[in-house]
Amino acid sequence: MNGNSMLSNNRYDVTEWPHGDPFDDIGEVINSIIADVRGRQATGSVRDGGKPGAVIYIPPGDYRLRTPAVIDISFLRIEGAGHGFSSSSIRFNVPEEEWSGLHELWPGGSRILVDLPAQEGRDESEGAAFLIDRSGNPRISSVEFSNFCIDGLHFTGEGTGGNPENSYVNGKTGIYVASANDSFRVNEMGFVYLEHALTIYNADALSIHDNFIAECGSGIELRGWGQASKITDNLIGAGCNGHSVYAENHGGLLITANNVFPRGGSSVRLKGVTRSSVTNNRLHSFYPGMVVLEANSSENLVATNHFLRDHEPWTPFFGVDNGLDDLFGLLTVAGSNNSVIGNHFSALVERQSIRPPGVPPVIIRLLSGSGNYVSSNHFVGMDVDATAKDSCFEAQVDALLAIDDSKTLAVMAVVVDPAATGNTILDSGRSDQVSLDPSVNAFRPTPSFASTGE
Q: What is the span of the domain harbouring residue 63?
């Protein structure tokens, strides 16, 4: 590495590195840089230091990745100069003869083109653009990704209308963390057209903040176990068979101030998660099962979120669903001592599309557990006309802004299954909107208007 200062010795520009061509294979270049850092910082302790790590800078431009970048050192920051997200889904559903009139065809900024062979069904780590894996102690720490775009380029599965670009399948993963880790950061990134954007195992004090993660099969997946991490201020939208946000066996997880938009099979799915918070998020879905607490997820707070469930308005995906019927619930809980407080639910559903036919859609469903506290939630049910348009942007904006108070829709605000006992339901639905056994659960209905008979 050229330069005389200690600072420049630990800062690399992929376009200035003498080994490899970053435009042809940035993975090979990054691996070469990491090998240089590892070789120069080989001593465990020098003057109470010795391994400060490095910064790898990716200037604006398109960089093909043919070799996975493998990270096995701590204190590494890979940064670009723009997250570069642009909707590939919209472009791939525009007739090809119209492409020449588009201002741009591909995402931009500092953009990684994941050109690994598409292979459905392989291990997720094998299709990862960035693979973080290191055994031994201490855990790998303080690896940061910031301000560049990871683009999977194309989907290859069986998509709607025979278009593979609508399948959300290609076997590619943006960032895959295989080993236990501490204080990782993924900030201001763009992820597009990856089957899995972020898959992270065994995270401690992880920060996923202010990213644009959309048009990926699944967005954020926290697997294995973890603690004290946060998912905040992100724009997220997954595919109909994937998760926008998924976490398992985590404690102390903070999911706050995210804008989660369709068409993920779930907006937030927590499996065996305890003492965590899902608060102040805007959640939008085309199907039931928006937020699911399962596998005895307990002592969690779900508060002051805005839930919107309506219909897919864009022609290429019209009629696609996640396989759940309207009895499943928009928020489903299988666990104990959770608090569900002060959430707003809007169910804008075409009456004739409800499944099973003729039933009121369920909003909150307690499947099992005890000690759950459901209080002061507000519910809006409207019977709407489900129509589709060819313009994605116009269709979704029109659907979001449409208000028609003339056609109300009966909903079941809260359903408490027989396996759930010792729960408290307060001011979260009128008597006719709540189904429970009052001999084993406490219930105070929302007051009714005498003049309407409700």
A: 11-41+51-216
